[in-house]
Amino acid sequence: MNIAINNISILEAQAVIVPVFAESEEVSLGYVSDIYQYIRSREQFKCEQGEVFTTVKFGEVLPQDIIFVGLGKEEEINGEKIRIALAKAVKKARELKAEKVYVDFINTESLCYGATVKAMVEGLKYGDYKFDWYKTDRKEQAELNIGFGNVIEEKYKETEDYIKEGEAVAEAALLARDLVNEPANVIYPETLAEEVLEHGKKYGFEVEVLDELQIEDLEMDAFLSVAQGSDKAPRVIIMRYFGDIENKSEILGLVGKGLTYDSGGYSIKPTDGMVTMKSDMGGAAAVIGAMSAIAQRKLKINVVAVVAACENMISGGAYKPGDIIGSMSGKTIEVLNTDAEGRLTLADAVFYIVEKEKASKVIDVATLTGAALVALGTTTTAVVTNNDEFYNELETASRKAGEKVWQLPAFDEYKKMLKSDIADLKNLGGRFAGTITAGLFIGEFVLERPWLHLDIAGTAWTDAERDYYSKGGTGAGVRTLYYLAKRASRK
Ligand code: BES
Ligand code: ZN
Ligand code: ZN
User: So where's the catalytic machinery, residue-wise (predicted)?
Assistant: First the structure.
């Protein structure tokens, strides 16, 4: 998709997208005004948020399809509503086989200008996303050419930059969706590492990949215990971006859960729970996506990201319920359930990022517990933290991003649930408060650094098309991490 200002005239456009607020008595695009008045007066179109009304082209009288899309009330507008509306409109344009699309720009005082532009760009890009390249009858689609019309002339330059930023963020979120949607026979630790190497080259961050021997040298026993049941060798993928070299003591550490497949191991999952477990690297996808956007936008900040990638499988060599394993930190862990594997891999990854990469703050992102889905559903990411100030930064960023987060309590009583009788910790906190205890387990390995744990088990995947998400991976976390890094980079 190519998006620019004024590069498509109304005359050459095959479709025209006209976003309208509910109270608008007319539209700024004069030549469709009569049609608008007509469909409004007949109540064929009520301008409700996300509502689409299309007129069909009719020779010279109406030489293109007009796609009206409702934005709801102007005083209630926000980025999310714009993304949803534009995603629906662009889907319609595709359906109508348009390749050149004129988009009437949304000029409003009710939302900050940059947020408006970026949300428009994101909505268009998300709405046009499809994961269909395994379908052999798939038709190659032409690239969509989008032209923003009605942009105020004095604002051209800043609009262009906001378009670029919106594109970078959307591309990063769609990269994360792709990585999650790719099946586990295609994306496994080695191939994931290759993908990251490629994206590092493309966007400008350094990538180092550790193989099994190097991981053994680091004594990442907890991570290696999870990995040992699989024929696919594990990898530790390290991404480094130093945009603020004068400030080397401040390094934001991002850690993503990278289970390229989670069968549950000997605590095996039922088939229904297993089929979507290619998505258990959604946290890894989020940090890879965020890293791409951060580097592409050349933010003035230092960020290191780590993914400990492996598969959780069954074999004669797999780890078992009852095993006592070590960890890079030296702490011992009693394994009560091999399906609680994410926290084991993350324990070593977060310890590594603090100890070896000198991260001064840590955020881990993980599809960690089904309990997060039970507690908050599919729209909200659960957060556990040891630092409320850091959480506030995350919340601000999430609002900018249009993603939702909610903090869970982290009282000492919950930490006690992880004590083992025969080792330092156990990997299961019991039946209750599963999301909290899982998060706090990871928190035991961050060496008291300010830390946020994002459980995206509910938000990383959607079973049905919704808003601007297609079925499958959602790219959850990418935008929030990007805006958090961007805010931190201003200081
Ligand atoms: N990857 C799963 C969590 C998950 C479940 C993600 C559903 C997305 C959708 C994780 O490794 C897991 O299996 N967790 C267990 C933990 C339990 C054994 C304490 C769970 O949630 O059941
Ligand atoms: Zn599991
Ligand atoms: Zn898992």
Answer: 269, 343
Q: Do residues 183 and 328 both lie within one domain?
A: yes
- Does the CB atom of residue 339 touch ligand 1 within 6 A? yes
What pLDDT score does 29 carry? 87
Q: Are residues 115 and 186 in the same domain?
A: no
Q: Does residue 165 lie in a domain region? A: no
pLDDT in tens, 281-320: 999 999 999 999 999 999 999 999 999 999 999 999 999 9
> Of 419, 322, 381, 333, nearest to 429 (Cα)?
419
Pocket of ligand 1 contains residue 371 by CB under 6 Å: yes
Q: Whose CA is nearest to atom 18 of ligand 1?
A: 340
Residue ranges of the chain with per-residue pLDDT less than 70: 490-491
Q: Which residues are catalytic, by number?
A: 269, 343
**CB-facing half-sphere around the CA of 211: CA atoms within 13 A:** 2
CB of 167 closer than 6 A to ligand 1? Answer: no
Q: What is the pTM of this model?
A: 0.98
Residue minimizing CA distance to atom 3 of ligand 1: 369
Domain count of the chain? 2
What are the strands of the beta sheet with 333-334, ordered from one edge? 324-325, 333-334, 425-426
Q: Which two tokens stand for residue 290?
A: 């965020």
Question: Could you tell me which of 322, 212, 223, 221 has the C-alpha nearest to residue 266?
Answer: 322
Measured CA distances, 461 to 248, 369, 471 (Å): 36, 13, 8
Phi (first) and psi of residue 457, to 5 degrees: -55, -35
Same domain, 113 and 253: no
How much is the pLDDT for 490?
A: 66
C-alpha dihedral, 274 to 457 to 326 to 209, nearest 10°: 90
In a domain, 161, yes or no: no
Nearest residue to 210 (alpha-carbon basis) of 230, 188, 193: 193
- Using the 3D structure, point to which of 115, 150, 185 is the last residue of a domain: 150
Tokens matching residue 403: 């993603």
Token representation of residue 367: 């599809």
